[in-house]
Write a structure and sequence with these properties.
- It is a single chain.
- It is built from 13 helices and eight strands.
- By secondary structure, the protein is an alpha/beta fold.
- It has two domains: 127 residues, Glutathione S-transferase Yfyf (Class Pi), Chain A, domain 2; 152 residues, Rossmann fold, CATH 3.40.50.
- The protein is globular, with a radius of gyration of 19 Å.
């Protein structure tokens, strides 16, 4: 039996061939090195993410997340729900908080769950956590450092937290203005964090990249430019949307602003997987649009 066991909510972006499937590859590799077992919630559904706020309405959005909680409590009883996607974690946490605060919302949600035969399983007692919460609070930096066999020496990393893992819930004990946990993870695996990176909690624009790209591009430019100006070799993030936006739009930003950015944007789990001795493929580096060559070199040693 694994040392750490969680009820796992992977989310849509981690599905095979989806935008963050390489994150899932690295998470599985990381977890195998840290003796973590992820028990996927059977028949989980989308958290509704941005579309739930735009047009779906509050009750459908909350009911979708409540269904995942009910399924977890039914099939993985007494296991904390862990999500790797910031939006999935935020949506599920918000659902839990909103239902706890309102008897009306609870009653309406249970009525919806009744249609699926899940109302009796919904207790809403389980903890909902981001993967980095579990790593920090349960495992700790010292234990995370133990499997390191290929320290990321000489790799300068800008830790980009973004919005959703920072507000409104954040990581316990961390500052909302200057969270340090990504910097600490970088240090733990032997890399060099960019301590004065001043865009670590700046919004990437999220879905504005589709609807109003010029606004999102301006924000992404500042995020990449700050990392570049401080000598970063790459940006690391815990959020699939942040990773996608900040990586894939650099070419358009270069065309629009006359810049020449080519900054790799990876997940913290990829850093950890490489430092733990995994190959570039096992760390999901083959899924990058902008290759993280310094990580690839270390993985290939």
């Amino acid at each position: 039996m694994a040392k750490y066991t969680y009820s796992f909510y992977p989310g849509c972006s981690s599905e095979k061939k989806a935008s963050a499937s390489n994150m899932m590859t690295s998470v599985e590799t990381m977890c195998s090195k840290l003796d973590i077992q992820l028990n996927e919630i059977p028949d989980w559904n989308c958290c509704s993410a941005s579309i739930g706020y735009c047009g779906g309405g509050e009750l459908p959005r909350l009911a979708m997340n409540a269904r995942n909680i009910a399924l977890s409590e039914q099939h993985n009883p007494e296991q904390d729900i862990v999500a790797t996607c910031a939006a999935c974690w935020l949506g599920t946490r918000e659902c839990q908080e909103r239902i706890r605060q309102s008897e009306t919302i609870l009653t309406d949600t249970l009525e919806v769950l009744k249609e699926a035969g899940l109302e009796r399983h919904f207790k809403n007692e389980v903890k909902v956590r981001h993967m980095v919460e579990s790593l920090i609070e349960d495992i700790g930096y010292e234990e995370m450092a133990a499997p390191v066999v290929k320290p990321l020496e000489g790799v300068k990393v800008a830790g980009y937290v973004g919005c959703q893992t920072n507000r409104p819930f954040g990581i316990d004990g961390e500052s909302f203005e200057n969270p340090k946990y990504l910097d600490k993870i970088v240090e733990t695996v032997g890399g060099e964090p960019i301590e004065d990176y001043d865009k670590k909690v700046t919004c990437c624009g999220g879905a504005l990249a589709f609807s109003e790209p010029e606004k999102s591009f301006a924000q992404i430019k500042d995020i990449v430019e700050s990392a570049h100006d401080r000598g970063a070799d790459l940006i690391v993030t815990p959020c699939p949307v942040c990773q996608m936006n900040v990586e894939i739009y650099q070419q358009q930003i270069n065309h629009q602003y006359g810049t020449s950015f080519n900054m790799p944007v990876t997940y913290y789990s990829q850093l950890m997987s490489v430092a733990y001795g995994s190959s570039a493929k096992e760390a999901g580096l083959n899924g990058q649009i902008i290759r993280a060559k310094k990580l690839e070199d270390i993985a290939g040693k």
